[in-house]
Structures are given as structure tokens and as C-alpha cells.
């Protein structure tokens, strides 16, 4: 974990993991839907199913055992569009592309607030 903390965050922010998505993975709450989306992407890369589970809306959340426990081979994240999802919004949309050696996953994700915190509701894979 120490080497990961010093390396660049997988979300593409250019910040060290510890000062970026690592803070959310340790319990800080993202202020925007985009920040949550970036932290979830990084959780998929690093294989953090518990984080994915706790940041998923209760009404659409799968079981932890249904989430990947090992990292996915994503190599780059591209945020294509955001709508709402700011610090004072209750809903947000983030359109993104996650690149891997085998292709691109293009998704339009929807986020809501639960108990004041941003959570992933669902998404449409394109």
C-alpha cells in the first residue's frame, strides 16, 4: 500500500494516490459526483470491492461478493461530460470512458445523495 500511496492516482488527476482517491478509500467523502466516479474507477483498478459496495445506492447495490475483488486492467480514464453533481446538487450524471488493453468501456453513470453523501445509482453502458 505504501508504494501505491506515492504513485500517481489511477483516476488521472496527476496527484499522488494518497492525496487523491486514496483519501476517499480511507473514509473521506467526495464533494462531487465526478470525484466519487473517479474514486470508484480507482477502486475498480485496485480491487476494492468494499468501497464500491458502500458507495453504491442501497436500492441498486449488489452483494460485495458480486463485485471484483481483484483489480481490473483499466489504463486510462476520460471524463467526457458532467451534469449536476456539484456540492449543492442532489443528482448528477458523469459520462466517461475507461480504457483497457482490450477496448473501451463507455458509460453514462447516474449519482444521487444518500444521507448527504454521493453514491452511484446506475449507469448505461454504451
From TrEMBL:
It holds the Pfam family YchJ_M-like. SUPFAM superfamilies: NTF2-like. It comes from the Bacteria. Residues 32-123 form the YchJ-like middle NTF2-like domain. This is YchJ-like middle NTF2-like domain-containing protein. It comes from Corynebacterium imitans. The lineage of its organism: Bacteria, Bacillati, Actinomycetota, Actinomycetes, Mycobacteriales.
Amino acid at each position: 500500500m505504501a508504494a501505491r500511496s506515492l504513485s500517481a492516482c489511477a483516476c488521472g488527476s496527476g496527484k499522488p494516490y494518497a492525496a487523491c482517491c486514496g483519501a476517499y478509500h480511507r473514509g473521506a467523502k467526495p464533494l462531487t459526483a465526478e470525484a466519487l466516479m473517479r474514486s470508484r474507477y480507482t477502486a475498480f483498478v485496485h480491487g476494492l470491492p468494499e468501497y464500491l459496495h458502500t458507495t453504491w445506492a442501497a436500492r441498486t447495490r449488489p452483494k460485495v461478493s458480486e463485485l471484483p475483488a481483484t483489480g481490473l486492467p483499466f489504463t486510462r480514464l476520460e471524463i467526457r461530460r458532467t451534469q449536476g453533481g456539484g456540492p449543492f446538487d442532489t443528482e448528477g450524471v458523469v459520462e466517461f470512458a475507461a480504457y483497457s488493453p482490450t477496448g473501451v468501456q463507455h458509460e453514462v453513470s447516474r449519482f444521487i445523495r444518500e444521507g448527504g453523501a454521493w453514491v452511484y445509482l446506475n449507469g448505461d453502458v454504451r
